[in-house]
Fold:
Amino acid sequence: MKKLIIVLIIIPLSNVFGQTLDKIYLHRNHNYGPTYSYSISEITIHSDSTFTWKTWNLRSKKEKKLYKEIVPKSFKGKITQNGKFYTITEYRNGKKSDIYWTIKVNNKRLLFLYYQDINGKLPNGARYKRIR
Structure:
């Protein structure tokens, strides 16, 4: 009987103290398109080496507080770690990527590094700020 009581106490407490390992990064920028002038992107890197990339295109920067009310374009894919960098290997819901996107991830931000320049360095691309 005592074992049953202990089990019934421990099971609910294990869910309370659980924590997610998913990291969420956010990027806001003007995109200078013909119909949309502001975009917000959110990348969630899951603990199982997958990611979810959501994009909202807004008509103006004034709408940025309401972006969660709009249905985003959403993509899922796989990400692999190569040394201190990450590489997106599958993009747009399971299709192989024709460009190997190199990403540098740390605790505060996610940084896209597009391609090697003449000196062999990777120039900085879009910067995503970690929000959770």
About this structure: The beta strands are 23-30, 38-45, 50-58, 73-82, 85-91, 95-105, 109-113, 124-130.
